[in-house]
Model the fold of this input.
Amino acid sequence: MINWKNLDTLDAYQTMKNVKPVNLAEAMSGENGAERVKNYSVPMAEGLAYNYAAKAVDEDVLGALVQLADEAQLADKFEALYNGAVINTGEKRLVLHHLTRGQLGTNVMADGVNKRDFYVEQQERIAAFADKVHAGEIANEAGEKFTTVVQIGIGGSDLGPRAMYIALENWAKKNGCFKMEAKFISNVDPDDASAVLASIDVAHSLFILVSKSGTTLETLTNESFVKDALRKEGLDPAKHMIAVTSKTSPLAKSDDYIEAFYMDDYIGGRYSSTSAVGGAVLSLAFGPNVFADFLKGAAAEDQLAKEADPMKNPDMLDALIGVYERNVLGYGATAVLPYSQALSRFPAHLQQLDMESNGKSVNRFGEPVSYPTGPVIFGEPGTNGQHSFYQLLHQGTDITPLQFVGFRHSQIGNDVTIEGTTSQQKLCANVAAQIVAFACGKPDENLNKNFKGGRPSSIIIGDELNPASLGALLAHFENKVMFQGFCWNLNSFDQEGVQLGKVLAKRVLAHDTDGALKVYSDLLNI
Amino acid sequence: MINWKNLDTLDAYQTMKNVKPVNLAEAMSGENGAERVKNYSVPMAEGLAYNYAAKAVDEDVLGALVQLADEAQLADKFEALYNGAVINTGEKRLVLHHLTRGQLGTNVMADGVNKRDFYVEQQERIAAFADKVHAGEIANEAGEKFTTVVQIGIGGSDLGPRAMYIALENWAKKNGCFKMEAKFISNVDPDDASAVLASIDVAHSLFILVSKSGTTLETLTNESFVKDALRKEGLDPAKHMIAVTSKTSPLAKSDDYIEAFYMDDYIGGRYSSTSAVGGAVLSLAFGPNVFADFLKGAAAEDQLAKEADPMKNPDMLDALIGVYERNVLGYGATAVLPYSQALSRFPAHLQQLDMESNGKSVNRFGEPVSYPTGPVIFGEPGTNGQHSFYQLLHQGTDITPLQFVGFRHSQIGNDVTIEGTTSQQKLCANVAAQIVAFACGKPDENLNKNFKGGRPSSIIIGDELNPASLGALLAHFENKVMFQGFCWNLNSFDQEGVQLGKVLAKRVLAHDTDGALKVYSDLLNI
Done:
């Protein structure tokens, strides 16, 4: 029997609050610190590991978090989710993104079909289509191969797929599976579509229109933009476009597209990178096998997330530590800091994933909660960030928990040795150094040069960023956000907060405004 | 006589705290709201305007802020700064980035020269050099024109110039002044340099090595990376590289570079976009006249920043409202949300500018302060952000103040009309709608769809993003950060918080570690 309770009604909440806070600088010093780094680690899938030694936790805090996991029934709730319960209470929908990459539990039937079969079918249809495009069997009007794929979508149809593409682009080139360059058009700003169109060979480009509902304003507008550009070149838009949409959308059976691939209402936009939304563009760019490996990594991480003991479940433990930092230590933001240039847009994807899922003030029953929920998420790759905003992270007045990611090997493998070490070694040395600098600090009589330490971080360490480890990394954060939503008793799968702006924007465009909105409209010459 | 006092010792601080908070949702409703939008606006340079109607201020709050500006002697401190006082107390340096774009006060002599003349001389030397490159008088070994310019630098030598380049790239193409494509190598991750080098025609590329000290690890490492690549193509690196550095650096008189251009210790990295650091790459990419217009816009905004009355000084007023939000309302982060795809990396630059300047816990005398200083800064362009993290901004448990930027016209001018409106109109309608949605909210019986409002924002509105308005926009934020540093009694111009990580990274690379640091090093195979 699952009970959905607010965090502050749980006994574990009081336990957490009453545990003595950890002196992180002290805990991470000397041999005790060395032991922590060795022991405070949980294996993830695909050779990754979640190391939380530099978090402000100890056996007592972890004990409280184990109690919380149990009392909040995190494992039971995840099981209910992947077995098809209506977890998205606001929109009364199932939440099935895990099924896009594996069968975690019982069969889930919805819309009269087995949903796992449905997602596999879409993946296979995309794979067959991509193979034909790569073989030149599906080609442009002149019978020439498509060389570029352009995704038209916004939000979850853009950030996730774009971040994954950038993460794997160099790996694919290095490993001989780079098939087509991908570009992305998202913003309704006309300069976005104009600039992308000016940068590509339109005649050899295949466009993917991605919209679940088939009604997203930005996406349909940019589709028209692209169709105009195709027609200006004397090309037939219907020969250059495919759609990724739901079966019930107006795009699903349209002659405007070479082919349509399907997602459904049980895949939230921000959870759609492993569905057809990510599948089409990634399979076209890198081939279906790369996409399949990416799904394999995500599925392997999902399997680990089923474990009820958080000490063996890296996704759940990361979630619980985050709740402790937010609700007991009172921290308002989290920085995501991948030491990998390939992950340059991964923080922007996590920003959506986390902030859109858990940036809410009411629980899953629509009742106000009286504790902080999702934090602000931001980040840039290291070492770049070190020369930018790390000053505030080290010496600012507020403490921001940090999430590092690092890999032992680079993707391309070209390197240079300066002063006896490679760039990859320098990169890794920097992330190791930062963790210890943040945790331990360093006293200095000149307070301007003093580092208090006590600034918590975790790191996910892997061998190499490749399709499988990227899938595991993505699933880790999806599952972390899900578990945090369970702790906070939120519905992490709707986004009512985006609606009011849409309604008001329509009124502005219809000139149906008064008061402040009318004056702003006038100032902007609308 | 200037007094440097902590914020909490000022009478104005108590006044601010005692003023009745504004009910923003109420203030922005109806005709009162319309009047606010008309009146709560201060002209900026180059046709921009700073509109603060949707900030939680009224005549009483503004009165307190005027008192604060006066008591904290903001105008006097700025005057001392541009007239050459040692404002950077930690490093005992002048702060002269304003002189890179104009003569604001008396002549400033340092290092035996008139510094304004020195900066102008560098600008002119760069202009002459760029003209020769564009004319083919300075060419590669084969006598062929350079077609690409690649900046090698990190932090302030990367983020600002990169953001400015992206901001003007489409404008320059549209207006016939696009001379050379620019690329940027920053991260010590070897995949960063590898990927950029693979994307360019090395034989026709001119590289700019940017390092004030000439000792930045990442930059020197990437220089070697590039030199190796040049040699592998049988090219002479000394024929493909210029340097931007200080006159005292080892790079200044080296035969390794075609030419060296100079900055100095009085220009902080994050304030260097208007110096030779931005000047070389922007003049090469777009021509010296575009860079001159950019400086003109920045200088015009600086002139406005001299005004002692904050109600007529947009940079000072923005700063003061931010202090009120941070120290009275208690908000921990600020989101920067430009409704312009061209400003896609502008938030990342502001993140460095703000967080590295004011993310500090000690005052300019090295004494601890007992109030919050610089906030976390993050952001992405609209409308993209609307489909991502705006959910938390609208309905999250914490309030995040917002800084919008919008332009009446796009840069490229291509557009498409859908449902009777252009994309540019849709873009502007969205930013207008968001401001009102955040401020006013909208009650709903279903609390999941309820918008409380009361979420403050300001907007900078302009006609078009071009070199001059971009310069004004940049200077606005530089001056805002400076004024906030004055209010908080910080030294906004050093960055001691980045040092400890550097020291520890060197120890890791020298295998001179123990405890936690040694175990992390082992885990990362260093």
